[in-house]
Write a structure and sequence with these properties.
Layout: H1 3-27, H2 37-53
Amino acid sequence: MTVNTFIRMIGGGGGSYAFIVFVLRLSGKRTLSKMNAFDFIVTVALGSVLANTS
């Protein structure tokens, strides 16, 4: 693993975390509890796809 790869990995992970926290703050505290099963499955699937592309 090169230093450039390590920096990209840390930056991408930190940026993704900050984005998720930002979206959850905008959408409200009860957003996750109000999801039905389909919404939850789509969210997990989308997260899996995004994890595989980075």
